[in-house]
Amino acid sequence: MKNTLFLVLVAAIVMVIMFFAGTYNRLQIMDENVSANWAQIENQLKRRNDLIPNLVNTVKGYAVHENTVFSNIADARAKLAGSINSKDVKSVQQNMGELNSALSRLLAVAENYPALKADKSFIALQDELTGTENRIAVARRDYNESVKSINALIRTFPTSIVAAISGVKQRDYFEISETEKQTPKVEF
């Protein structure tokens, strides 16, 4: 009887340890997946930030007197670069919105210069920027999917206990700003 009770107790302890280890490992893998997906967002945002000076310089050649637009873009790029380095999702979202707004103003300026709109380097840079925006959207979707998975797992019992013990916390979603949700006004 003592041997049976001892074996049952040992088996229960082994099962609890195996559950904890398995859950811990699964959480670590999911946490790494979220981090890897965030790194992809950072990569695409850096690519975009690297394209913007070329676009600005192309526009400057045609629209020399639009200094406010150019300085707004430079400020927004600097803020975004700082928030990317801090790895603060909310800050990146906010500064991305500012940069998007500044870029919209730059492209609106470009509309006033027909020769600029026909410039091959301007067209190529716009295409590159469009492709990068699409990559950012895909990276944001992948990141949010991985955040959804880990957050859902962390909120379930008994995984929540393992997550609390191991220090794995819920992650923030990368959401679009309120200004990006608004329908753009199109006038003909």
What does this structure look like?
The structure is a single chain. With 188 residues, this protein is mostly helical. The chain is built from 7 helices and no strands. The protein has helices at residues 2-62, 67-86, 89-111, 114-118, 120-154, 159-166, 178-181. α1 (2-62) packs antiparallel against α2, α1 runs antiparallel to α5 and α1 crosses α6. The chain is rod-shaped, with a radius of gyration of 24 Å. The N and C termini lie far apart (89 Å). Residues 183-188 have low confidence and may be disordered.
Beta-strand percent range: under 5%
Radius of gyration: 24 Å
Shape: rod-shaped
Number of strands: 0
Give the key terms.
188 residues, mainly alpha, 7 helices
